[in-house]
Specification:
The complex is a heterodimer of chains A (about 120) and B (about 400). Chain A is about 25% helix and about 35% strand. Chain A is built from 3 helices and 6 strands; from the N terminus they run E-H-H-E-E-E-E-H-E. Chain B is mainly alpha-helical and about 400 residues long. In chain B, helix 11 packs antiparallel against helix 12. The radius of gyration of chain B is 24 Å and the shape is elongated. Classes of the chains: A alpha+beta (about 120), B mainly alpha (about 400).
Amino acid sequence: MQYAMLVYHHEADFHSLPAEEQNRLRNACADWYSQLEATGRASGAMRLQPTVTATTLREHNGKLVLSDGPFAETKEILAGLVVLECQDLDEAIAQARRFPSLPAGFSLELRPIIPDGVRRSDQP
Amino acid sequence: MNLGELYRRDYGRILASVIRVARDISLAEDAVQDAFAAAQAQWPVHGFPANPAAWLYTAARNKAIDQIRRRTLAEEKHRQMITLAAPEEHAPIPEDTLRLIFTCCHPALAVEAQVALTLRTVCGLTTEEIARAFLLPVPTLAQRIVRAKAKIKLAGIPYEVPDEDALDERLPSVLAVIYLVFNEGYSASAGPTLVRAHLCEESIRLCRELATLLPREREAHALLALLLLTDARRYTRTDADGSLVRLEDQDRSQWNRPQIAEGAAIVETVLREGPAGPYALQAAIAALHAQAPTFAQTDWSQIAALYTQLARRQPSAVIELNRAVAIAMVEGPARGLELMEQIDLPGYHLLFAARADLLRQLGRREEAATAYRAALRLVQSEPERRFLERRLQEVSR
């Protein structure tokens, strides 16, 4: 199975950490990911720019409305995601719990990915 | 044994083994129901089979396999076909019950969902029975079960007993579900019936099965002892009108002695084998209560010491309150009151009730009345309310 591991953090808290600590966490997470990728247990990951850089699109009365900022103004924001390749939820939890930023107050949400979910389907 | 008794005893086991084959809880449930329906039609005519559980299991498994084959042909799902080619055994196997328990009590499911699903599948209670026991509308409960099953399937919650390393982490949530079911039966949190015997019996049955399947897990055995010892006093907890009878006023001759002996023997074994976990400590306390000849002759200092150990392992204001009650029995109500002053449990009626009782013993009737009134504002269970009202009248006279 594939799971999206959505990485959330408290943006302000994270950026108030000393630069060396932020760097240490980033590198530790990079190592965590490389190991998983090398053993076929992860197949993609991304880190997102801060929410101040976000642009949100909606349609209102047939017109495109752009707004500056994220979809929802929350303190804990989506900071990135990883695609885990695991047998089952227990294995996904076992990998996710070793994510180095977890002790730094990050939250991880595991969501099963729908197989071929973005391909056309003839099934009702 | 008739079919109803068989259903009660074997439904969960048969289902557990069919789920392993079918890899789908709902499909397996339908197949087991069909098998029981077939038995009901055929057995009275052709006679009972030599091994009814094996007959039911085989019938249910075949029905599940048929169903999957039909689906597989339609959808070309090869993975499920591979499962079906696995060697077939001819009776439900105990390991599967354990798998089902751990799946239903997986921490990725909400506790309420764990409880509902365990009672529905492992214990074979109907949705209506569970809804009635928890005072919930049937559709609410039914939806809870449907959602839980969908999550198991879609989120890939495994149908497995956790390995040695993970067992320590996972067992507590299984034990918590069993204890919760028992407590719901033993002291309903709201409503007219104090005792819902069915839930108590189911939780003991489940715990006994778990302890048998996990002989080395001492906390599972300790929980079984705790349930047996507590349940042994069940019938003396309420009088003919359903009013609460306090421990000190209960007729000890009516306690279930064989059950107390069984529970006490388990506690002794568990304590002999190593350091006591939280359930072992609670079971030891329950054993001291159950074996005391009278309320006054209870070994209160030992009970206070056990509560002190328990509070150290599991800091909790409720445990502190029980400890204070035990110490009050040894050192007097004034000391108990002093300890209760430091307990922060706003909204917990038993703290006010316990304080009221100590104030009453000290002859501070007005303060006692105030505390009883505070407890009455918070209490939810009808029998407990009646008891508190009676006490309030006594101190107000």
